[in-house]
Design goal:
The complex is a heterodimer.
Chain A: E1 27-31, E2 37-42, H1 46-65, H2 68-84, H3 86-97, H4 101-121, H5 125-129, E3 131-132, E4 139-147, E5 150-154, H6 162-173, E6 177-181, H7 188-198, E7 207-210, H8 214-223, E8 229-231, H9 238-249, E9 254-256, E10 276-284
Chain B: H1 11-18, H2 26-37, H3 43-55, E1 57-60, H4 68-79, E2 93-97, H5 101-108, E3 113-117, H6 128-140, E4 145-149, H7 152-156, H8 160-174, E5 178-182, H9 191-203, E6 208-210, H10 222-239, E7 244-246, H11 254-267, E8 280-282, H12 285-298
Parallel strand pairs in B: 1-2, 1-8, 2-3, 3-4, 4-5, 5-6, 6-7
Amino acid sequence: MNDRVEVRKTYKLFIGGAFPRSESGRTYEVHDTDDKFLANAAKGSRKDARDAVLAARKGFAAWSAATAYNRGQVLYRVAEVMEGRREQFIADVQAAEGLGDKKSARVVDTSIDRLVWYAGWADKYAQVLGNTNPVAGPYFNFSIPEPTGVVAAIAPQDSSLLGLVSVIAPIVVTGNAAIVIASTLRPIPAITFTEVLATSDVPPGVINMLTGDPAEIAPWLASHGDVNAIDLTGVTSTELAKKLEIEAAGTVKRVRRPAQPNWLSTPDLGRLGAFVETKTVWHPLGA
Amino acid sequence: MRTIAEPLTTTSALREFLHGLPGVDEVGIKARATALGTRSIKNDSKSWAIDMAIRMVDLTTLEGMDTPGKVRAMCAKALRPDPTDPTAPSVAAVCVYGDMAPVARAAVGDNLHVAAVATAFPSGRASLAVKLQDVRDAVAGGADEIDMVIDRGAFLAGNYGLVHEQIVAVKAACGLAHLKVILETGELRTLDNVRRASWLAMMAGADFIKTSTGKVPVAATPAVTIVMLQAVRDYYELTQTRIGVKPAGGIRTSKDAIKYLVLVKETAGEAWLTPDLFRFGASTLLNDLLMQRQRMAVGHYSGPDYVTID
């Protein structure tokens, strides 16, 4: 008989490269699809959101200044570390989403491939989204995409890993810093993902993960003066989405509220171009 | 606490007095600072505290690259910290190098104090004649507050008489200007030394005692500030004279500033909660106070885009 006492897990948030408890001290129980207890997760509050914004702003400075090539390498490294934890992710996804062995393995593999796919775009999207513009004068005129800044995102509620990765990767690969609210009922794959981030080369603050209730946390991010954009992918209630859009309008944020795609299919460049600002430069021709 | 029967000026008399002061319980002071720092501040008190903290700021620029333009820009900000909100109070003073005092005085007129650092700031390594001329220049340039540094080398060597004599001479050179004495607590090593230096400065005629220059790695800490606040409180009991305290360096957030206000109230008492007796030497702190103020006014978090880049 195995009489070992299992270690009960109480997970924490991921802010600025560290794993703090929620400032509120609250936690909530996470269950699998059969309603079996899995672990406790931190229930983030508005002050956690505020701390995450500070961390993200710090992380943004260095991340946005890194070379595109370097950002690609860092994302690729995240995929490598994920690959090493493949079995854990499969178990997490299975418990969270109630999928079979094969299906959850496919979801995890696709998530890793998705990261590699976006990593590859790191030093190529500017060539596609940018342009040299024909002008009637002795000038070069070119448009280049630059990161928007600090982006808050509400991750998909159902697709707890693949959806999450598909939301985060395009935000950070273009040089933004992200504050992500993980799926409320299925946060464990997101938490394992933060453990991957902590042991890969992602600089502190570039990706911050909050767990808890988006209806409580997201309005503070939507109205925050130091958040530049918000991605509402995981907002399921029309009422909350509307509220967040109104809050975001107060500080003229970029708001993206796309339809939920089939996460397993290969994405287009829509998400890559969602959180960049186009800078157009006039440059006189040489004499 | 013993009474001071007659002015102490010689090294031996000063040593007898300063080393007779009760020792500082370093662990106890640090525990008390931590305990006071956890006090919960409710919204009404917080908005009062933020405005009070703004009014206590000595807005400071002490860089080799200071230009007249930068000093004027800082003075404009000192007078009207938040141009979007006329109810935001002005800060207490601007703090500059002595040669910038005329620029600062011209920019702020009689609306604010102009503090100038003098006496071979920040090291204090110059002859007394040079230090005194430095002070006279700053006062002639329009400074009405002088921030002097003590000779830490002499203090640590136990030459209290020399330190005392220099402070007395600088005080005389100040004329009507207020004298703030910088102890540079980061270089004094122990809290016992902080207590001794505080007493030495007060007995030599300081109007304010200030923690740091901001030029060494360890600047103002809550523990050091508590020791200095205890010193001014005890000095008041002895002499009925209130001396001010100015922590400087390393205080960057509103939360920190409010913690210091709690220390002031709980250590020296409410009488010290005025810009005449408590100041913050700071540059980045003001922006954070303004962002918190905006947050309380509009209900959502503000960001660095809504305050000036200094």
